[in-house]
Design a protein that fits this description.
heterodimer; A: 284 residues; alpha/beta; Rossmann fold; 2 domains; six-stranded mixed β-sheet; four-stranded antiparallel β-sheet; globular; B: 292 residues; 10 strands
């Protein structure tokens, strides 16, 4: 195992505080129970799980949006419960959410990308340079003068990513960042995250309930009732279709087809997880 | 002879906001058969929502005609109240509209406003809950807010069903539901269609969903109807949907690519079982050739 993980989650437990204090005696269930996970620099990790499995709660512990009730989370060795370090932690681990509208502030695309930099009081020429690079990385330079509400859903999500990239983080967490997008934009954003991982060496934590989005990850963890219940490479995880179904994950039909063909005696590589790979494997 | 519950002729709709005009629908002509499930697909801004809002008279045509179960929706005039009862609409994330303390009260909200007898309201509510798989003796007195996301959405569906609509319009009905929630929702929706003969109109960009449920697809792009046909016919035509920003379901995409690579897969293969069968057959032929 690598000596120093970027994010080191050590036996954390978390329960959301109750809304109606005192009235109800019922304790809300634990959202995370004794979870441990190490994420290495440059890794592409997918966190899978159905609604309410605890995957977003886990993700929010990675940049100090939530602080564990017990156990601890270290980001580059900094403890997330230490208030003085939280700014540094959030600069290191950026996050994008389901609805990009919640993350867009300015009235023009390039101003929005510059926002967090301007707030931090960086010199103008440095801001200009970083904004340029961030917009190029997600291919929205041609939209720079547009107001954000003129963008499509996929373009807005790119803009949200650019805003985070401008801060030069080491890690980006995409928390269900594709689930409100149409299928084509969904694929584009997944491909973009993969590309940022490959080209810039960014650590990516991709939180999703869609199996097909986890196919490109190096490692997959699956959450259920606040626990990590499965962990491995996509090719090992995707072979146990029955187990995935029990965990309330939708099995993409191409994956199911491959599994049924294999059961019928065809030899097909376990690495065939995307449509393109499956096609190559069958034609061979 | 086919019986069209909805027929649209040369429908155009232009939004007017101040001096700006935007043509949202342009010369649409289409027919939807009674008791069928029709899906209207297209990217954001293609005109899907504008179109379905004509079906219950929320919008009126700028030009052209829309006839819904014998009622004409015209540019002006006509009593459209009757239409709003006949056409039930379930919007996106309908569970956000639940507000009563009990499931029963929430489903009863609509029928109570129809000035029906208490008994009639009760019968309707109980039936609707039964139809969506929430048996009243277990669920009627519970708070909608302690149910799962999928169950809450079915409470919202029951609320619409209790109005006894002849047409049910659903806008992205399963967005945000997990696999189980989806499968259940499809099951109960198909039951409504088959048992009560309700015509279902689905607005969706989830092609797997559309492939599972719809008898007929209508593709909208920039306010025009650019294509219509059965899912089998449309998804079998290769990557034709890409030009309108849509994709075929993943399985069709796989089969289309295999076909392009020269595999003898018939293009109208559509379900998992059919695909399995076709591929096994190809494999057997391959073996036989090798053995000759």
């Amino acid at each position: 195992m690598n000596a120093s993980p970027l994010i080191d989650i050590q036996q954390i437990t978390y329960t959301y505080p109750l809304q109606n204090k005192g009235k109800s005696k019922a304790q809300s269930p634990k959202a995370l129970q004794n979870v441990s996970l190490q994420i290495q620099p440059g890794e592409y990790l997918a966190v899978l799980g159905h609604n309410g499995s605890g995957k977003s709660t886990l993700a929010r512990h990675c940049n100090a949006l939530l602080i564990p009730d017990s156990g601890r989370v270290l980001v580059k060795g900094l403890d997330t419960s230490n208030k003085a370090d939280q700014r540094a932690i959030r600069d290191c681990v950026g996050m994008i959410f389901q609805n990009p509208d919640n993350q867009i502030i300015a009235t023009v695309v390039e101003d929005d990308v510059a926002w967090a930099l301007a707030v931090r009081g960086l010199p103008v020429n440095l801001i200009a340079e970083r904004v340029e690079q961030a917009m190029n990385a997600v291919s929205i330079s041609h939209l720079r003068k547009l107001p954000p509400h003129h963008l499509s859903g996929g373009q807005k999500q790119r803009l949200a990513i650019a805003g985070v990239l401008a801060l030069r983080p080491q890690c980006i967490i995409a928390d269900e960042a594709t689930s409100q997008l149409d299928p084509l934009s969904r694929r584009e954003i997944t491909a973009l995250l993969h590309q940022l991982n490959q080209d810039l060496g960014l650590t990516i934590i991709h939180v999703t309930h869609l199996l097909e989005e986890a196919a490109l990850a190096q490692r997959v963890v699956i959450m259920e009732q606040g626990h990590i219940v499965m962990e491995g490479t996509p090719s090992t995880i995707f072979t146990d279709i029955e187990r995935l179904r029990q965990l309330k994950l939708a099995i993409p039909e191409p994956i199911e087809l491959v599994s049924r063909l294999r059961a019928a005696g065809l030899t097909l590589s376990r690495e065939a997880l995307t449509v393109d790979a499956i096609v190559r494997e069958i034609v061979r | 002879m086919t019986d069209h519950i909805i027929s649209v002729k040369n429908l155009s709709h232009t939004y007017q906001s101040g001096p700006l005009q935007k043509a949202a629908l342009i010369d649409i002509t289409m027919e939807i058969e009674r008791g069928s499930c029709a899906a209207i697909i297209g990217i954001t801004g293609s005109g899907k929502s504008t179109l379905v809002q004509h079906f219950n008279g929320l919008l009126r045509p700028t030009s052209g005609t829309v006839a819904v179960d014998g009622v004409n929706v015209q540019a002006r005039g006509g009593d459209l109240k009757v239409l709003r009862q006949r056409v039930g609409m379930l919007f996106q994330f309908p569970e956000a509209q639940l507000f009563e303390h009990t499931v029963y009260a929430d489903v009863a909200f609509g029928p109570r406003r129809l000035k029906l007898s208490k008994r009639e309201v009760r019968t309707r509510v109980l039936q609707a809950l039964e139809t969506v798989g929430l048996p009243p003796h277990t669920y009627a007195q519970r708070s909608p807010f302690e149910l799962s996301g999928g169950q809450r959405r079915r409470v919202a569906l029951a609320g619409v069903l209790a109005m006894l609509p002849k047409i049910l319009v659903l806008d992205e009905p399963t967005t945000g539901l997990d696999a189980d929630g989806r499968t259940e929702f499809y099951y109960y929706l198909q039951r409504v269609q088959q048992k009560d003969g309700v015509t279902v109109i689905l607005v969706s960009h989830d092609m797997s969903e559309v492939a599972t449920l719809a008898d007929q697809l209508f593709v909208l792009h920039n306010g025009r109807l650019v294509m219509q046909g059965t899912p089998r016919a449309i998804f079998g035509q290769g990557n034709i949907l890409h030009q309108w920003g849509l994709t075929e379901p993943p399985l069709s995409e796989l089969l289309i690519q295999l076909h392009k690579q020269g595999l003898a897969i018939p293009l109208d293969v559509f379900t998992l079982e059919e695909a399995l069968h076709a591929l096994q057959e190809i494999e057997t032929t391959r073996h036989e050739k090798e053995n000759v």
